[in-house]
Design goal:
Layout: E1 4-10, H1 15-29, E2 33-38, E3 52-60, E4 63-64, H2 66-72, E5 82-88, H3 95-109, E6 116-121, E7 123-127, E8 130-133, H4 137-153
Parallel strand pairs: 1-2, 1-3, 3-5, 5-6
Antiparallel strand pairs: 3-4, 7-8
The protein binds flavin mononucleotide (FMN).
Length: 154
């Protein structure tokens, strides 16, 4: 099933927005339609126009951003092909652990079965107001290619 994909995201430092944009570009380059929505600025009233959804969020102080968490609790998300990603410092060295710690509990709590669920490296706090950008656009490109492939099978 292929149609329009919503890429909803919530960012504080910008890493998640970059990843959302790369995912959208990658899907578009494969002929899919994709809308990028910043949940801080816009509400998504209705998911009925979307055949699939990607949710991206960052994490600070061990808390996934609130609007990302509440988005995953939406009842109209159930049954839609879904991709979930996180931007985090932990994911630089331990992406699997970051996924297990921050994403798996959210996915489980909401009874979701995402096609893809992964943690990407974000901006690493070095001190007050000092973030080192460790984002890797290539990871998101490959992730989106795999997501598109799975959508084709869904
Ligand atoms: C104040 C602060 C707290 C953070 N806490 C965590 C944390 O608990 N776990 C983690 O893996 N990364 C942590 N990080 C790194 C962020 O996840 C990283 O900056 C990521 O890029 C956030 O996504 P965003 O840039 O889209 O906001 C923290 C960063 C800051 C600035």
């Amino acid at each position: 099933m292929q149609g329009r994909t919503l890429i909803a995201h919530i960012t504080a430092g910008g890493a998640t927005r970059m990843y959302a944009d790369v995912i959208a570009e990658t899907l578009r380059s494969r002929g899919l339609e994709a809308d990028v929505v910043d949940l801080k600025r816009e509400k998504v009233a209705d998911l009925s126009g979307y055949s699939s959804v990607v949710l991206g969020a960052g994490v600070r102080m061990f808390m996934v951003y609130r609007k990302g968490k509440s988005f995953l609790a939406r009842s109209d998300l159930k049954g839609k092909p879904l991709g979930v990603f996180l931007s985090s410092a932990m994911a630089l060295d331990k992406p699997g652990e970051a996924r297990e710690k921050f994403l798996d509990p959210l996915v489980k709590r909401n009874g979701l079965s995402p096609l893809m669920c992964d943690a990407f490296p974000g901006k690493i706090p070095l001190g007050p107001g000092n973030l080192e950008d460790k984002t890797d656009a290539d990871l998101a490109r490959k992730w989106a290619e795999e997501f598109a492939r799975k959508l084709g099978e869904a």
